[in-house]
């Protein structure tokens, strides 16, 4: 095992991250393959090797201090926003034998609800150790997880779960058990979770220490005899492990298919939210009982207020057809020869339509309207700058379903709100003056809210495209980069600019040359440094940490690439793709098993 990178010889931005990522991924792929073949001893041996690796420690610290959105959020020790020197210190202090610190309790409001969700924020030291252990455990469990589990897994999204539901009900209407596990993260039984993990002693003791560390709420320390703290790096993986097996259990209760019938129920899960689909009401009711009994071993139960049985096409008791899942409304509508359901005597079938749920539409409008109200005295540029990310993110999330009519309605409501904002600012001006002052009517672009330099996005401008569901049990750890690099360019939530840049770069980062992983944070870099120049020739897609390194140095991307190559191999910049970077001798021999 090689020694750590010497911070005196290496600056953080000069560390050869490409070599580190390649080495770690190769080891993770070996863990995945060993787990797939059922070789538990080999899995544990490779995991211990990875956890001792300095390369893995550097990668774990980079993820929690640069890539993670919570890098500026402190734990109970108040440490946050690490400098490069502090990152080196953290790497040298990483030891699984150290005692875990309590997590800091933070309460955040649930979208559109009065109640709040508790988050547990670990210290930066514990976050780094959790990220390191996750690097070792995730490949093992990606080989085990069930095909219809979509939440908090690399390469999978809510859109995959919705598309699987659409495939299941588009040709045959079915009864649906729409269920939610009550306080899933807060009630998981620790002993049962550790039994299911079945990992080696060092990892088991570390996980138990994090689970039992306690919660600091204000000045009060509370014990944690059960549950997994939301907010930890490894918490989503542990929750998925706890709920793993529920789909297999349900299918095992219906071992034989009846001739000509789809007898086996279908369970689709996204974290602790799931649905069970089947054409027979009795089977769905049986599944509800079976799932309730299965969850008791974990100390969990179904939430009565969010658990109900409905039908995709017909009413069931007081429940109307359809259901909401992950912010989408799923329903089948009766149609006839003229595609109209008004004349029941001519109905011949149904059509399944998925669109944004009413609750999420109201929440989006309320969020935008309240923000405009709070900025009555702010300049127009501030309005545009604050609203564009909210409009872009919400529209991209629903861009794979029937959302055009909803987009148009939201844009109209947004226009009305902006018109009131403009009239409030100029009560003595006429309507024509206000329209030409804040919209581009006199410039021939119609009701485009703009200050001349910046334009407000519209929901309706987001293109609607079909979503291709992830293949079966496919995972990025299987090493099929042709499949995953193509899929990354059409991943839900990726903007058109990023998607186009990824396709032009054939799925690779323009700075480090590595394929984009499904969990990588991708940013757009402007080659000439001018953020107003948005021509595609000036834009490249790169990792967030690569972006930090570029702006931490001098010059633009093309200049830095040229300097990087010349300084290492003496070759011309255009020969970079055909060359391998020359690494210093002290960097070699880290992961030879």
UniProtKB/TrEMBL annotation:
UniProt entry tagged with the keyword S-adenosyl-L-methionine: no
Key words, A-Z: Nucleotidyltransferase, RNA-directed DNA polymerase, Transferase
InterPro entries noted in UniProt: DNA/RNA_pol_sf (IPR043502), Group_II_RT_mat (IPR030931), GrpII_Intron_Splice-Mob/Def (IPR051083), HNH_nuc (IPR003615), Mat_intron_G2 (IPR013597), RT_dom (IPR000477), RVT_N (IPR025960), Znf_C2H2_type (IPR013087)
Pfam families per the UniProt record, alphabetical: GIIM, RVT_1, RVT_N
Assigned EC number: 2.7.7.49
Domain Reverse transcriptase: 89-330
Amino acid composition bias (Polar residues), ranges on this chain: 556-566
Keyword Nucleotidyltransferase: yes
Listed PROSITE patterns: RT_POL, ZINC_FINGER_C2H2_1
GO terms, molecular function: RNA-directed DNA polymerase activity
Broadest EC class assigned to this enzyme: transferase
SMART domains named in the record: HNHc (SM00507)
Location of the region described as Disordered in the Swiss-Prot/TrEMBL record: 550-593
PANTHER family linked: GROUP II INTRON-ASSOCIATED OPEN READING FRAME, NUCLEAR INTRON MATURASE 1, MITOCHONDRIAL-RELATED
Record NCBIfam families: group_II_RT_mat
Name used for this protein in its record: Group II intron reverse transcriptase/maturase
Taxonomic source organism: Leptolyngbya sp. NK1-12
Gene name, Swiss-Prot/TrEMBL: ltrA
């Amino acid at each position: 095992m090689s020694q750590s990178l010497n911070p005196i010889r290496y600056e953080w931005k000069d560390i050869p991250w490409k070599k580190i990522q390649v080495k770690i991924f190769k080891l993770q792929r070996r863990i995945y393959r060993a787990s797939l073949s059922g070789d538990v001893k080999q899995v544990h041996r490779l995991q211990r090797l990875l956890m001792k690796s300095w390369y893995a420690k550097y990668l774990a610290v980079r993820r929690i201090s640069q890539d993670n959105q919570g890098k500026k959020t402190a734990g109970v020790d108040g440490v946050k926003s690490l400098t490069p020197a502090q990152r080196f210190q953290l790497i040298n202090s990483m030891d699984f034998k150290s005692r875990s610190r309590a997590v800091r309790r933070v309460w955040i409001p649930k979208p559109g609800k009065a109640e709040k969700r508790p988050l547990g924020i670990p210290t930066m030291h514990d976050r780094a150790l959790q990220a390191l252990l996750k690097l070792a455990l995730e490949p093992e469990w990606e080989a085990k997880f069930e095909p219809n589990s979509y939440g908090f897994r690399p390469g999978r999204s809510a859109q995959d779960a919705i598309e699987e539901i659409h495939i299941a009900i588009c040709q045959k209407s079915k009864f649906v058990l729409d269920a939610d596990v009550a306080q899933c993260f807060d009630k998981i039984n620790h002993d049962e979770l550790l039994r299911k993990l079945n990992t080696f002693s060092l990892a088991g003791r570390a996980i138990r220490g994090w689970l039992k560390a306690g919660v600091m709420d204000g000045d009060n320390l509370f014990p944690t005899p059960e549950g997994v703290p939301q907010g930890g790096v490894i918490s989503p993986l542990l929750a998925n492990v706890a709920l793993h097996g529920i789909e297999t259990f349900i299918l095992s209760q219906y071992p034989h298919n009846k001739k000509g019938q789809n007898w086996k129920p279908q369970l689709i899960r996204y974290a602790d939210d799931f649905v069970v689909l089947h054409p027979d009401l009795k089977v769905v009711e049986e599944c509800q009982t079976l799932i309730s009994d299965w969850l008791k071993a974990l100390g969990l139960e179904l939430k009565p207020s969010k658990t109900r049985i409905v039908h995709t096409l017909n009413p069931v008791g007081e429940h109307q057809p359809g259901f909401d899942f992950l912010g989408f409304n799923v329903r089948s509508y009766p149609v006839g020869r003229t595609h109209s359901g008004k004349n029941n005597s001519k109905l011949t079938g149904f059509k399944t339509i998925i669109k944004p749920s009413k609750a999420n539409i109201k929440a989006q409008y309320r969020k935008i309207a309240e923000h405009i109200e709070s900025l009555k005295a702010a300049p127009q540029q501030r309005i545009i700058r604050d609203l564009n990310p909210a409009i872009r993110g919400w529209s991209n999330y629903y861009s794979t379903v029937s959302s055009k009519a909803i987009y148009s309605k939201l844009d109209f409501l947004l226009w009305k709100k902006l018109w009131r904002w403009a009239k409030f600012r100029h009560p003595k001006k006429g309507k024509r003056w206000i329209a030409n002052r804040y919209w581009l009517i006199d410039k021939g672009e119609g009701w485009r809210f703009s200050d001349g330099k910046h334009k407000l996005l519209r929901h309706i401008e987001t293109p609607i495209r079909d979503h291709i569901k992830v293949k079966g049990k496919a995972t990025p750890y299987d090493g099929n980069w042709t499949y995953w690099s193509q899929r990354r360019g059409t991943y839900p939530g990726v903007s058109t600019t990023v998607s186009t840049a990824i396709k032009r770069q054939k799925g690779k980062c323009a700075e480090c040359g590595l394929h984009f992983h499904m969990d990588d944070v991708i940013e757009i870099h402007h080659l000439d440094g001018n953020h107003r120049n948005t021509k595609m020739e000036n834009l490249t897609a790169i990792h967030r940490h690569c972006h930090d390194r570029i702006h931490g140095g001098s010059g633009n991307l093309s200049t830095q690439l040229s300097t990087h190559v010349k300084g290492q191999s003496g070759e011309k910049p255009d020969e970079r793709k055909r060359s391998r970077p020359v690494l210093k001798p002290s960097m070699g021999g880290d992961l030879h098993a």
